[in-house]
What we know:
Rossmann fold, Dihydrodipicolinate Reductase, domain 2, binds 6-O-phosphono-beta-D-glucopyranose
Amino acid sequence: MKKNNIEAQILVIFGSNGDLAKRKLLPAVFQLYIDGLLPEKFIVLGAGSQEKDEAAYRIDVDEALKTFAKNSHTKNRSKLADFLQKVYYKKVNNQTEEDFGLLKNYIDAISQKLDIKQNIVYYFSIPPFLYEVVAAHLVKFGLNSEDNGWKRIIIEKPFGYSYDTAIDLDKKLHNGFNEDQIYRIDHYLGKETVQNIMVTRFSNGFFEPIWNRKYIDRVEITASEKIGVGGRGGYYDTSGALRDMIQNHLLQVMAVVSMEPPAVFDSDSIRNETVKVLQALRPIRPAEVAKYVVRGQYISGEVDGQIKNGYRQETGVAPNSKTETFVALKLFIDNWRWGDVPFYIRTGKQLPERVTEVVIHLKPAPHQLFKQLCLTEPNNMIILRIHPDAGVAIDFGMKIPGAGFKVQNVNMAFHYSDLAEKKIAEAYERLILDCMTGDSTLYARADAVKASWKFVDTILSAWKKDPEIPLYFYECNTWGPKESNNLYDDKFMKWRYPFSKFKTE
Length: 505
Ligand code: BG6
């Protein structure tokens, strides 16, 4: 990662004592510091509801880095000490208006003392119901004013709870901030391997000519997780897999896979193309939801010799919850390139593998000359593996050496790690740095967020209104409800079962 001309600035983290700050944000900022990517004049200002002084907060940050950035913490002792000197703290209760007046005084004083211009990134690492509250409080005390330096806000997901609430939130944020100051983070877009999809497609001459309805039979996107909801039951029970993973991460990945090539590689051009895909999604009519979308919920099952709780037994989850922990759906993009090519998207918790991948299934050769001699089903696939074993693999048929013409599917795999001189940067490192330099390419734009909510909303409201739409149960450590295979019209077709080792069946 390389960024030039990064200006002096302050990173204010609201929710600085929370889980996200400790697990992801502080380790990412520390790594940027180690890599020499932060400006000389820079501080992190933790803004949290707990009463503590700078010294106590520095101890907390040290502790968080020790736990969540263990290697960097051990290997960079002197940089760690310097970094901690750049960490400050101010108690702010997000719901108390006056606290923002005090925050303003604090920022004025510290920026004067350290001679740092008030270029400020405000990171909203707080519960979603506080986004509009904090934004309004910032505006109230002129903390959004760009008279003395630029101001940007980073908003975590979920951005809204539905189409209407997303529009409403957007309006409220625009009361004090322009679109180019609002950075809606989707950490999937910060993943190196998601960005690599664009490079794979647009820097090579041989993928793009076949990247269309003429040669592609279907596209499959899977994000499976081995873990359950863990300690996040309270949040998850109000969200569910459709809101948690599909509305944002997986529809964004789908947009990158299916977008038209932009003429130039800049933020507007790329985001203009991805939004067109989201706006071209064929709406699923309420009466068709059960046909195109399968939802499931995990029940108790054995994982590595241990019996795991079912979802309804998880802390914070209602005992009769109907929240889905698994969703599989089929969608279509109504445009010239993709007309009638089905996209299958699936995500779930407590599945057997932790894998995120996109599989492009190509149509079979028009004439199967060796059909009788194939040892495995002839199957041409391009697999874009996002996690783990990031890379690209191509599956195709090869002659088995020796007499005759026996054909077998083989796999040519490129592992992305072979290209990286060092550890691949975490999504949050990339995204925070991008915001600091004013690059919003990998952040979701308002129109894209609205378009994906519009698509998802019909499904959510059909689930809410129609008790006949089933919620299927699946045991932990299985690939979700078997009914997800019913999304395929062809009864011999089923989901690919990916394995974390980079190979195909
Ligand atoms: C988060 C979801 O946005 O993404 C989590 O809220 C999910 O439920 C996580 O576990 C998955 O992200 P990743 O990067 O681990 O694939």
